[in-house]
Specification:
Elements (H helix, E strand, L loop, with lengths): L3 H19 L5 H6 L5 E8 L3 E2 L3 H11 L4 E4 L6 E2 L4 E8 H31 L6 E3 L9 H11 L12 E3 L1 H7 L2 H11 L6 E5 L2 H9 L4 E5 L3 H11 L4 E5 L17 E3 L2 H4 L6 E8 L1
Parallel strand pairs: 6-11, 7-8, 8-9, 9-10, 10-11
Antiparallel strand pairs: 1-5, 1-12, 2-4, 3-5
Length: about 280
């Protein structure tokens, strides 16, 4: 759940931008059929099984349109929800309920979808001792929502953005002239409290990363045999992350490696939405 400061400073401007995208001057359809304000209520209905996530954001859409809007929730973020289940009842000006419907559902469906997919993937790692991480492969201007959904689903967040940590990827290494040089330059520049992570693609790069003192070594797009060899060579001298096209279908095969982390961009870039809808709108 977002704290009050985060909600006001980070979340509200994004929701307002989304509302402005959907209502450039007026909601002409709603204004045509509802020229005057009338109190009403509508039900939020789940249409398929999944993990609930994003109720605070969903309701915030209506609050920003009219702060007197009220909601009664029958389920909370993180809970499993079933097809046909009534999740909440929203009460307020019918014009607000109609105008905010699509934006509110877009956020909620997307966040529920990410949480649902993450929950399935995280369950595949249970008992392995390996932590599931997300990536920066998020929808522009929706990262705060999608990374929250990963946490609700049972995953953990990798760095939030480029200011959040040092991750030397292939192009950084190429620009620096090699793994050793990139790590040395990062150590000289970054604050000492920052860990240095480096992406490697073969055993020569693994050896260079260990000898240069990388804190975390990311094994990227290596085959299973190569990764096992790398884990044995690193032997606890650095934390190990596995990355590269990791999905629900193939993550189980990585459990025997005994690495610290597995990151998957699919958690945010490939999770389908969870189908929900607002139904039974009526005046009260």
């Amino acid at each position: 759940m977002f704290d009050h400061a985060t909600l006001k400073l980070k979340v509200d401007p994004l929701i307002l931008s989304a509302l402005n995208e959907d209502i450039t001057s007026e909601d002409v359809t709603t204004n045509a059929v509802m020229p005057d304000g009338t109190m009403g209520q509508v039900d939020l209905i789940c249409k398929e099984t999944g993990v609930l996530c994003g109720m605070q954001v969903f309701f915030r859409v209506f609050q920003l349109l009219d702060e007197t809007t009220q909601i009664q929730c029958f389920a909370q973020d993180g809970e499993k929800i079933q097809a046909g289940q009534k999740i909440a009842q929203i009460r307020g000006d019918i014009r607000v309920l109609l105008s905010g419907e699509r934006t509110a559902l877009n956020y909620l469906q997307r966040m529920c979808g990410v949480a649902t997919y993450t929950r399935r993937v995280a369950n595949l790692l249970k008992g392995s001792g390996t932590t599931l991480l997300d990536t920066r492969k998020t929808t522009p201007n929706n990262r705060i929502f999608e990374k929250y959904a990963v946490r609700v689903g049972g995953g953990k967040n990798h760095r939030y953005n480029l200011s959040d940590g040092v991750l030397l990827k292939d192009n950084h290494i190429g620009a620096a002239g090699g793994v050793r040089q990139a790590i040395q330059m990062a150590k000289a520049y970054a604050p000492f409290v920052r860990k240095i992570e480096v992406e490697v693609e073969n055993m020569d790069m693994v050896k260079d990363a260990v000898e240069a003192g990388a804190d975390i070594i990311m094994l990227d797009n290596m085959d299973h045999h190569q990764m096992a060899e790398a884990v044995a060579y690193i032997a606890g001298r650095a934390e190990i992350e596995v990355s590269g096209n990791v999905t629900e279908e193939n993550i189980k095969a990585l459990c025997d490696l005994g690495v610290d982390y597995i990151s998957s961009g699919a958690l945010t870039h490939s999770a389908p939405i969870l189908d929900l809808s607002l139904k039974n709108l009526h005046a009260v």
